[in-house]
Amino acid sequence: MLNSLNQYLGIKSNRTIIKINPQCSINNVNSSSLKLKPSLHNDVINFKSKLFFVERLSKIPNFKQWQNKEHSESHCGPYCAANAIVWLSNNGYKKLYSKNKSALINELACYFKTKPAPIGTSTKDLCEGLDKFISDKGYRGYKIEYQGIRPGGKYGVVAMCPDLAKIKDSIEAKGMVLLNLGIYKKNLSVDGTPVYTKQYGHWVTAVGYGFNGQNYNPNNIIIHDPYNKKSENLFLDFSKLNNGKLITEKEAEPVLTDEAKGLYGSSTGIPYLNKDEMVIMNGVVMLKMPDKEI
Questions:
Q1: Rounded to an integer, what distance in angstroms lies between the CA atom of residue 258 and that of residue 243?
Q2: Secondary structure element (H or E) that encloses residue 146, with its range
Q3: pTM of whole model > 0.70?
Q4: In a structure prediction context, what are the per-residue pLDDT tens digits for the chain, which is 294 residues long?
Q5: Would you list the DSSP string of 208-225?
Q6: Which residues fall within 8 angstroms of residue 42, CB to CB, at 6 or more apart?
Q7: What's the CA gap between 197 and 245, in Å, rounded?
Q8: In 201-227, which positions are buried (b, 16+ CB within 10 angstroms) versus exposed (e)?
Q9: Which of 41, 80, 170, 272 has a C-alpha 20 to 30 A away from that of 229?
Q10: How far from 241 is each of 5, 135, 265, CA to CA, in Å?
């Protein structure tokens, strides 16, 4: 992974080569620092074509749960939500945050009913807590939606497999996108079918998409991970799983399916995973705020 973009990066589609301003780093790259260079076919796409979205990589905070011993193994949910809440407060929704990070995280943990490890924050409690938190701050007209393998209650939709296109649209909107990742060990059954055994779950904040630190990749989601030791952007190159079974025997909340087919998995991007581990996107919570304060 490159720490700076001091050269042409191979961000390529069949129509463009994108030149990066040599003075920008991967942590502050945005649309103004991207210059499009025509390909041999002189067919130039502008930034609005949604090849990728990197506008907020340095603007959304990257709070770290490990810096608080009481939170280090359990509070990924509140920390991820706090990342987005602070960004929203700086972009038109000032009532959400009063400039005290610790107080905000503790407040969100109460709303989310976050419990000590190994339970942490359930999907149901996060959705309900986020709804109440925003409502209690005086906002109306927002929408919370959940997609994934757990029951979403009134926030859920029929799709058990998160929709990558929907996630990308939500990343660009004024709101937040929290990915619920399952960390799994992959083995093969006697007949060769993949078996994914869950080790633990983890919440992360999605902050961009379409770029993996070196190349354009339409299936890449850029995240801020509260458990990662470094304050850096992480790049998850997702691909759809074609088959396999999920083993989730220790789940604290119901799971709607044991089929891995159609879910997105990634074996790269998380530096602290063991060699035999990978992540599967078990679910996503998407918040969209109203265009104006209501």
A1: 11
A2: strand 143-148
A3: yes
A4: 333 333 323 333 333 333 333 333 444 454 444 433 333 222 223 344 468 999 999 999 999 988 777 777 789 999 999 999 999 999 999 999 988 999 999 999 999 999 987 788 999 999 999 999 999 999 999 999 999 999 888 999 767 899 999 999 999 999 999 999 999 999 999 999 999 999 999 999 999 999 988 889 999 999 999 999 888 999 999 999 999 999 987 777 889 999 999 999 999 999 999 999 999 999 999 999 998 765
A5: EEEE-SSBEEEEEEEEE-
A6: none
A7: 8
A8: bbbbbbbbbbbbbeebbbebbbbbbbb
A9: 170
A10: 32, 37, 6
Give me the residue label for tokens 């990589």: 57
Q: Which stretches does DSSP call E strand in the chain?
A: 16-20, 34-38, 143-148, 175-188, 194-211, 216-224, 234-237, 239-240, 245-247, 264-266, 277-288
Tokens 């990728």 sit on residue: 52
